[in-house]
Amino acid sequence: MPLALISSSRFEQHLTPPGHPERVERAHVLRGAAIAWRDRGGALLDPRPATRDELLAVHTAAHCDAMAATAGRPVALDPDTFTSPDSYDVALLAAGAVCVGVDYTLDGAGPALALVRPPGHHAEADKAMGFCLFNNAAVGAACARARGLERVAVVDIDVHHGNGTQWIFYPDPRVLYVSTHQFPFYPGTGAATETGHGAGEGFTVNVPLSAGATDEDYGLVMRELVDPVLEAYRPDLLIVSAGFDAHEDDPLASMRVTTAGYRRLIDALWQRASASCGGRCVFVTEGGYDLTALGACLDETVASLSAPAPAPASASPRAGSGDGSEPGLPGPPAHRGRDAVAAVRAAQRRHWPAL
What we know:
This protein is of the alpha/beta class. It contains ten helices and ten strands. An eight-stranded parallel sheet has the order 2-1-5-10-9-6-7-8, sandwiched between helices.
């Protein structure tokens, strides 16, 4: 199952004001990873623009019209979110790239990694925010549903909570949203008690971690919370909002995840996709604002998804003591992970007995 990367130099044409963290140099890092993969003989696919119908599956018509109205001019949408003359077209490509990845993996070719900007997970149904114009992962999930899939899981490992993805699918049991994030932090959402609405109750699983969380904390919540929920849900497809801004070198957040720690997270998600949905998974870039850390994490993501899935997580018992003695955890989990496990179990155990 060969990995495909989806990339374009067009992503360099979304420009932000000087000093903005979502700067064009990020696109150079993304493109560099794609070219390196192509030069090694890997599959490199071009994105296509998302169609209006694909956007309308997750966004309002008013939002789509408002974004289209920015074409050809710079606009400040809010204090953090800007367009340049080409940004609208580039944002269409970012959303459409995830649909290309969905088609690739659902057609049985292998996993896909969409290397896109602007990011998407803060974009809500009716507004742009947090550097995001359209919700790329949500558009991809809707594309998968349009192809007949009954259950799609979106796992968000960005350091910021993906409020847009959460609210878009909050009442919908056909899309499971799981997020690990620094809390409290921008955008202020993502408490463990935010669990969904109506038929979607229990299908939003927030894993809030306090500032300073380490590889060990993330390893614990992945093993004790994220993986059991995914295993129980049995998704037909896994979409990963791959933000790398929980890295210890990232300037916007206060987490302490190392590059090796990110590799373990990617390995765990790739293993779960292989075990639960035949390897059908699409990773899409979100945040990550230290250029060196971003490049290193992309290298590890490509290395993981282009290799056979790691050994099943069952080699690391879920009901362990939490003292770091279990296989798969590099050291003693700190209190941040244990606190998150307790909060999520209190909020979610009636929905997910595996917890």
